[in-house]
Amino acid sequence: MCGRIVQKSGPLDYVERIFPNPRALFSDPAGPLYNIPPGTKPLTMHRLAGDFELGRLHWGWRPHNSKYFMSSARLDKILAGAWPWKTLTARGRILVPADGWYEWKPLADGPKPPKQPYFVHATGHSPLFFAGLSNWRPGAEKDEAHGFAIVTNDAAGGMIDVHDRRPVALPVDLAIHWMDPEFPTAQALALLEHGLPETAFTWHPVRQEVGNSKYQMPDAIEPVTVPSTGAPAF
Question: Is 2 in the active site?
Answer without folding.
Answer: yes
